[in-house]
Amino acid sequence: MCGFLGFWPNFKINKNQFQNNLSRINYRGPDYSNVKQIDDVILGHNRLSIIDLKAQSNQPLVSSCGRYNIVFNGEIYNYITLKNEINDYKFITNSDTEVILASFAKWGEKCLSKLNGMFSFAIYDKKEKSIFLARDRMGKKPLYYSISKDSLCFGSEVKALVNLPGVELNIDQCAFNDYFSKGFIGYNRSIFDSIKQLPPGSFLKLRLDKLKVINPQYYWSLPVTSEYEKCSEIELIDEFDQLLNESINIRMKSDVPLGVFLSGGLDSSLIVAIAAKISKKPISTYTIGFTDQSMDETNYAKLISNYYKTNHNTFTINNDITSILPKIFSSLDQPFADSSLLPMYLVSREAQKYVTVALSGDGGDELFAGYGHYNDFAFEQQIRKILPRTITKSIGLIANCLPERHKTRTLKRFKFDDIYQSMGQYAARFFNYQERLKLFSNRNNVLNFPEVEFIKQFNPDLDWLQNICQADMKGYMVDDILVKVDRMSMMNSLEVRSPLLDYKIAEFSFLKVPSTLKRNGPISKYILKELGKRYLPKNFVFNRKHGFGVPLSDWFKSSLGDRLKDIFENSHSGYLNKSEVLNYIKMHNRGYSNYSKKLFSILVWEEWFSNFKTLKNQK
Questions:
Q1: Could you tell me whether strands 68-76 and 61-62 are parallel, antiparallel, or unpaired per DSSP bridges?
Q2: SS3 call for 107
Q3: Which of 40, 171, 514, 614 is the least crowded, having the fewest Cβ atoms under 10 Å away?
Q4: Rounded to 5 degrees, what are φ and ψ at 390?
Q5: Distance of alpha carbon 276 from the chain centroid
Q6: Radius of gyration of the chain (CA)
Q7: H/E element holding 73?
C-alpha cells in the first residue's frame, strides 16, 4: 500500500514543490520515498513495503525493456499466477508491481481484466509519450487527476494535487450539494471542479502530445440481471463457501505480519473463522472496546476469538474520544462526515503496532442486503401494496409535520408516488433539498443534483432490493466505506484487505443470488447467515446489528457543540447560514430531535475549509 503523484510537463513545476506535495501523503508509504524524472514527466512514490521488501522493488519502477515506468498503490493477489503466464519478460524483482508492468507490456489495457486485487496505478510509456491511469474494479484504491490545456497531474489523494500548476481550486457546487445531502462526495467528483476521480473499473489513456479531456473507459462494471441461473439454495451456499475461502486465502499472502479486524459481527467473524482454518498458526485479531457498556461489544468478539483460539487484542477507549478529531480533520483531503471514521482510525492505529496488514469484513451489507434501511424500504413496499395511494399520501403529509425521528423519516417518504422516488430521498439523508435551501448562505448554490442522480441509477428491469443494493455498492461503498477504510488505515500506515469485496463474489451476488436469498422474509443477509452456520459457534447471535458507532448526540451536547458554536460566533467559511446552524444546535440540545449527523457534517465542513485555506497558502 502506497501513495503516488505524477505531473507533466516537468518544466512547469519546481522539484521542491513537487516533493512538498508528495510529502503531504507520506503516511501512505513511510518505508521509502523517491522522485524520478523520465523525459518531461515527473513521478513520485511513497512506499509501504508489503511484498518483496528489497530495495529493487522500490518505485517508480521501470520495466526490464526500459519502455514503461510505473507508480502503483495496492496489492495484486494473483500476481504469482500471472507471473507464471508471462514467459517473454525478464523479471528482476519478486514484486507484484513488476508483474503489472510485464502484464501491461504483454497485453496492454487488456491486462486489467486479468488482475485480481485492489489497485490504482499510472504507467508512463516512453515510446508513445502517453500516461495510462487505471483503478481496480471495486474502487478500493483512490486515483484523482486534473487535466488543463497544457498540463496533467494525478495522485492518490486530492491534497497532493492542491497548488500544482494548472489545478484550479473552485468549489464544485454539485459536490458541495452531494456532501451536505449524504455526508460524502460521489459520482467520481472531488470537492474541486478541476479535480476528478477515476471511476472504479476504468482506465484513462492520455497522449501527452495531444492532451485533451476525455472520458474514462470501463473494463468492468457491476453486473446486472433479472434472470438468475437456476441453482438450489445449497448449491449457491456451496459456491459462496468456495469463493470466500479462495478470496481469504489469496489475501493472506504477505511478507509482513498480518491480522484480522474482529468486531464480533457476522461478517468479520466469518472472515476470522475461515482465516483461522487456512492459517497454519494462530491468527491475530483486533477489536475496539468502549468503557460505555451500551456501546461495547467486545464480548461477542471474545466469543469468536476463544472459539478459534486467536491471539486476541482488545483496545478499550473512553466514551469521549473527540480529542483525536483535530488530527483526523487535518488529514482529510475532502469533507467527509461518516463519524465511524473515529473508531476506524483507532483500531487501525492500535493494530498497526503489531501488524502491517489487516483483513476486514467490509462488503457483506451491500452485497447481501444487510442494512437497516432495507428493512425500512421493505416495510414501505408492503404498506404501498396494501393501502390505497390516497391513504399513503396522507400518511406521508401528516408525518412531514412531525419532528425528525427514524420512524417518522420512513413515514414521511409515503408522500412520494412510488418506492423509487422514495428511495431517491435516501440520497438526502443528511440535508434534503428544502433543508439545504435554509442551510446554504447562498440559495443559488442549492441544487437537486444528489436526489436526481440517485434516482437515475435505478433499472426498471430490477426489483427494488436489487436496485438499492446496486446503488449502495456504486455509491455508499465506493465513496464512503472504502474512503473511510483507506484514509484512516493509511493515516496509520496500515494496509486493509476486504475478502468479501473480491470481484468474483460481487459477480456471484448480482448474477446468481436472487433477492429472496439476500432478504428472506424478515431475515437480512440470509445466504451469508446460512454460510455462517457452517463455521460459527451455535451460541453466535446472528441478528445483532450495531456497527462502528460513536455517541455523537452526547458530544454535540457538550464539547463538539461548544466547538461548533465557537466557529460560527467567530470565523466560519461563509458558505453556511449562521442562524440556521445555531438553531440546529439549540434544537439538538433541547431534545427536539437528534441532529448530531447534521451537526457533524457542518463541523467537518468548517474544519476542512479552514485546513484547506492553510494548505492553499503553502507554496
A1: antiparallel
A2: helix
A3: 614
A4: -60, -35
A5: 26
A6: 24
A7: strand 68-76
**What does the H/E/C string look like for 126-195?**
CCCCEEEEEECCCCCCCCEEEECCCCEEEECCHHHCCCCCCCCCCECHHHHHHHHHHCCCCCCECCECCC
582, 564 contact by CB (below 8 A): no
Residue 555 pairs with which residues in a beta bridge?
none
- How far CA 200 is from CA of 140, 187, 481, in Å, comes to 8, 11, 14
pLDDT of residue 501 exceeding 90: yes
* Angle between helical axes of 482-491 and 341-351 (0-180°, round to 10): 40
Say if residues 396 and 443 touch (Cβ distance below 8 Å).
Answer: no
SS3 category, 36: strand
For residue 30, the cross-strand partners are 47
Own/partner pairs, 476-481, CB within 8 angstroms, 24+ separation: 476/184, 476/366, 477/138, 477/139, 477/362, 477/363, 477/366, 477/501, 478/138, 478/139, 478/186, 478/200, 479/184, 479/185, 479/186, 480/183, 480/184, 480/336, 480/338, 481/362, 481/366
DSSP-based three-state secondary structure for 52? coil
Whether 194 contacts 175, CB under 8 Å: no
φ, ψ for residue 13 (rounded to 5)? -130, 140
Q: How many CA atoms lie within 13 Å of 7's alpha carbon, on the beta-carbon side?
A: 24
pLDDT at residue 445 is higher than 60: yes
Encode pLDDT of 65-102 as tens digits: 999 999 999 999 999 999 999 999 999 999 999 999 99
**Confidence category of residue 543, pLDDT binned at 50, 70, 90:** low
DSSP structural state of residue 283: P
Backbone angles phi, psi at 495, to 5 degrees: -95, 130
User: Any residues with CB less than 8 A from the CB of 83 and at least 6 apart, and which?
Assistant: 91, 99, 102
Q: Is 409 exposed, middle or buried, given 0-12, 13-18 or 19+ CB atoms closer than 10 A?
A: middle
**Cβ contacts of 461 within 8 Å, gap of 6 or more:** 224, 226
Distance CA 201, CA 533 (A): 33
Predicted model pTM: 0.94
CB 286 within 8 A of CB 302: no
Neighbour tally for 611: CB within 10 Å:
17
Is residue 430 within 8 Å of 597, Cβ to Cβ? yes
- CA atoms within a 13 Å half-sphere pointing along the CA-CB vector of 234: 0
Question: What does the block give as the cell for 471?
Answer: 446503488
Residues belonging to the chain? 619
pLDDT tens readout for residues 130-148: 999 999 999 999 999 999 9
Helices 503-512 and 233-251: crossing angle in degrees, nearest 10, is 170
How far is residue 289's CA from residue 440's CA, in Å, rounded to a whole number? Answer: 38
Residues 6+ apart with CB under 8 A from 150: 9, 12, 166, 211
List the grid coordinates of 30.
513511510
**195 neighbors 144 (Cβ within 8 angstroms):** yes
In the numeric block, which cell numbers belong to residue 231?
441453482
**Could you tell me the end-to-end alpha-carbon distance of the chain, in angstroms, rounded to an integer?**
28
| Residues 212-258: tens digit of each pLDDT | 888 999 999 999 888 888 899 999 999 999 999 999 999 999 889 99
Q: Which of 153, 142, 141 is nearest to 194 (CA)?
A: 153
